[in-house]
Amino acid sequence: MKKVILNLILALLAASCLFYSCGKYANGGDKYAGSIQIKGSDTIVNLIQAWSENFVEQHPTYNVSVTGGGSGTGFASLINKTYDIAMSSREIEDKEESLAKKNNVNPVEFKVGLDGLAVLVNKNNPVDKLTIEQLRDIFMAKITNWKEVGGKDLKIVILSRESNSGTHMFFKECVLRNIDKNAKDEFSVHSLMMSSSQAIYDEIVQNPNALGYVGMGFVNDGVKALSIAIDGKSNYIYPNTENVLKGLYPISRPLYLYTNGEPSGVIKMFIDYALSDEGQKVVLETDFVPIKSLY
Fold first, then answer.
1. I want to staple 292 with a disulfide (CB 3.0 to 4.6 A). Which of 180, 207, 262, 280 is the partner?
2. Are strands 252-260 and 85-88 parallel, antiparallel or unpaired?
3. What is the torsional sign of CA 164, 169, 171, 175?
């Protein structure tokens, strides 16, 4: 009997401790007084993660969760009201704005940085420059062998992001369609659609025939970034911060955060941090181009 009573007392004590911890959490306590859910572009997920870590370090009572999946996924999550902020490497599309309106969501745009899309090849590939036209012909499989652009007699392996990616959309509009809204050109059916920029990078590191496009933040000594020219008569420009900021690099774009309506509370605090001098230094540190001077 004593054993039964003792077990009952222990169970009651455990329950009271559990209730206390949950009650302390729900009432604010000293953790997670507010939280932010961010989802979207894989291109800038490392930048947003860096912002989040710094933000939480300065405001320990707040929690920030960052998830990739592509710009389209980010917009869908914002429209469905499951996430607070969509991070995107493209502007919101008309059809997404229409869906948002139907769901009583008002997307508000914040330009937070600039990015150059780098075209990567294996570091042992002798090709180091291409024109926009050559790129277009490669990704549409009109050029299929590296020897056609000054390389070895090897078949080109085309790597592309999946269609829900803002990086995919931007590259298609800028390179394949040459900013022509009436154009219908698409990636070759022989393109290998990769789930993330990291997947493209990893494939290029180990595949000497591969070529793909990623955000400039993925450029390092493990791969080779190509210099790109608008045409054969133009200068070939390397994708780096200075050339993007000066508007010289032909495959560059803004980076965005979107909120539902004008932000307030902890969401506004996070946006303000992203656009602050400190936040824009993080943009530079993660190999993107600060937008601060353009506001």
1. 280
2. antiparallel
3. positive
Whole-structure pTM value:
0.67
Q: What is the pLDDT at residue 293?
A: 58
Q: What is the pLDDT of residues 193-230, one digit of tens each?
A: 999 889 999 999 999 999 999 988 889 999 999 999 99
How crowded is the C-beta side of 135, counted as CA atoms within 13 Å?
Answer: 32
Residues 6 or more apart whose Cβ sits within 8 Å of residue 196: 42, 68, 161
Q: What is the rounded distance in angstroms from the CA atom of residue 82 to the CA atom of residue 74? A: 10
Q: Which of 264, 258, 266 is nearest to 55 (CA)?
A: 266
> Could you give the CA distance from residue 247 to residue 281 in angstroms, rounded to a whole number?
20
* Helical (H) or strand (E) element with 136: helix 132-139
